[in-house]
Amino acid sequence: MPDSTSSAPIAVAMSGGVDSSTVAAMLARDGRAVIGLTMQLWNQRRLPELAGDGASGRCCSLDDVYDARRVAERIGIPYYVVNFERQFEEQVVKPFVDEYLAGRTPIPCTLCNNYIKFDRFLEMADSVGAGQIATGHYARIQYDRRTGRYQLLRGVDQSKDQTYFLFGLTQPQLARTLFPLGGLNKPQVRELASSLGLEVAEKPDSQEICFVPNGDYAAFLSAYMKETGVEPARTEGEIVTADGRSLGRHAGVHHFTVGQRRGLGVATGEPLYVIATDPESQRVVVGGNDALLRGSFFARDVNWVSIAGASEPVAATVKIRNKHAAAPARLLPTGDEARVEVVFEQPQRAVTPGQAAVFYSGDVVLGGGWIE
Length: 372
Prior knowledge:
The protein contains seven helices and 17 strands. It is α/β, with parallel strands linked by helices.
């Protein structure tokens, strides 16, 4: 398991927020050799037509870089800004665009964790001689001597737990990662930051995806494709009921996601929700709330975290969205260890293709994959 007594430096991913700043200050206070690294992921000056009220509430802004640098100076550690914009665009932004245009609802933060904040960041840590990395995620890691595997566990603060976005971590990554905040709740972290003299102690948490101002995905897609010279396929079409009855027209399937109620542009006297989107037929299917319920689904590209795999049915609780209360289910093997069928004890609402499904046993993350 990670050796907290190692004399090798620890590379801390510093976002400029209170969480990662507190991690860096905690480790430095405890006598560890710390190197602060901030990842520059997205040029906030791109797509100025989307700027709105600026970068307020968005992670990875220029203000965040400034705050991270101030914290590093305050606690007296080396600090560097690393430009990962090209990798971020290739491995996060472009797949995000492709998934939306394919009628799925992607999670860019999970892609960023999988391919940038751990994969690329560990490579950068190696280049500065760091033996381990530390982040401000609310999660925990423990070593199971019985199985010889590292386990990923929910953070103690269930309201801040971030394991839903971390299911892609591998055993080698977990072996070198520290989550110092996993046993704390947010008020404790802010109190600790204040006691350590950090000016970011009361800084609000970021709420938005760094490259999507105000959460308007459709506006981002249009602006990004225009900037990159991509001619979008014609995706406007019909809004229909499950039995094929036409209710109206829409401007593009990428404007809709499963479970959406507002902004449908049709009225029938009863609440309607998006049940499915079909880019091939360019149809958006709508229906009542009951039509959103699904008892099972398949998850692809499964990464098994705390267990080696599932050769027989496994009892678990499964989250299909970050804020979804994990529901009891069985994981059924399909003969392909990277694909399982999830069968709920009770049907769940708005199982959305492209979203992550994360499997738990108590606080332990068994693994996770992408909803087909």
